[in-house]
Amino acid sequence: MHIVAYDFDGSLAMQQPLLEAQGIHLSLQSMRQFERSVRLWASPTVFCKMANALQPLSGERAISLIGSGDYHHVSLALIAQFTKPLTVVLFDNHPDWMRPPHQFHCGTWVYSLARLPQVQRVVIIGLESGDIEADAFKQGDMESYEQGKIVLLPYQPVQVQADTTDYLSSRLHHNLALGITEVLAQITTDDVYISVDKDCLRAADARTNWEQGSMPLSTVTAVIRALRASKQIVGADTW
User: Fold this and answer.
1) Contacts 24+ apart (CB under 8 A), 24-30
2) Strand bridging mode 167-168 / 158-159
């Protein structure tokens, strides 16, 4: 599996071990020309230019490194390169599923992702930021949630205002084995794309510029190992 580091803000280029690892298994692509125009959100014209500038992933398994969650909507452009049916497994402290006005935004990109024809389902794990709590839940992509296109698995139980339930939770926090079984049961395709926003992790395992969750890194890696053992991981990114 090849690693592509897309450097939008200069943070990746400052990491000497990453620079020294460049070669047959890792390539570094500067995207600094989009540092300001794509941070947090982008116009349709700019997003299209950025997507066309990305090193293509389709046809080869690749891990993409981007550096900052401010650019998480770039995942939409990466996943759009794939054509076969797939499930997206997203580890994130935020659902990123708000209804637009901005289609290409770090807080709305999952809304657009759920409407890609090749994406059969989006399974979101983490979700401790409060963005789905109480009446905030109804500000999200209710259509995709009610159709089963988006599955929400918070690491901690969350009270929500949904038509079918008063709270959402997952088993990952209390029983890792049962939690992994729960995740795998939501995946209906052979192909899986994994996206990891490090803000879902506890502060002891990662530091970000967004609200932190409480999930241990060991839980994330255990789920990924289970996915690798039973599914075809066609691509992945991390922020």
Assistant:
1) 26/2, 27/2, 27/3, 27/55, 29/4, 29/5, 29/54, 29/55
2) antiparallel
Q: Hey, which residues does 151 pair with through a beta bridge?
A: 123
* Element spanning 202, H or E: none
Supply the mean pLDDT for the chain.
93
Q: Percent of the chain at pLDDT above 70?
A: 98
- Look up residue 229 and give its amino acid: A
pLDDT at 169: 93
pTM above threshold 0.70: yes
Q: Encoding tokens for residue 239?
A: 């922020």
Q: Domain spans of the chain?
A: 2-238
How much helix, strand and coil, in percent to the nearest 5, is found in the chain? Answer: 30, 25, 45
Render 129-194 in DSSP notation, one character per residue. Answer: SSTTSBGGGGGS-HHHHHTTSEEEEESS-EEB--SS-SEE--STTT-HHHHHHHHHHT--SSEEEE
188 CB burial (10 A radius; 0-12, 13-18, 19+): exposed
Instruction: Note whether 126 and 154 are within 8 A (CB).
Output: yes
Please state which CATH number belongs to domain 2-238.
3.40.800.10
Whole-angstrom distance, CA of residue 36 vs CA of residue 176:
40
Q: 55: which DSSP letter?
A: P
* Distance from C-alpha of 135 to C-alpha of 133, rounded to nearest angstrom: 6
Both tokens of 188, joined, read: 């209906």
Q: pLDDT (tens digit, 9 = 90+) per residue, 96-154?
A: 999 887 779 999 999 999 999 999 999 999 999 999 999 999 999 999 999 999 999 99
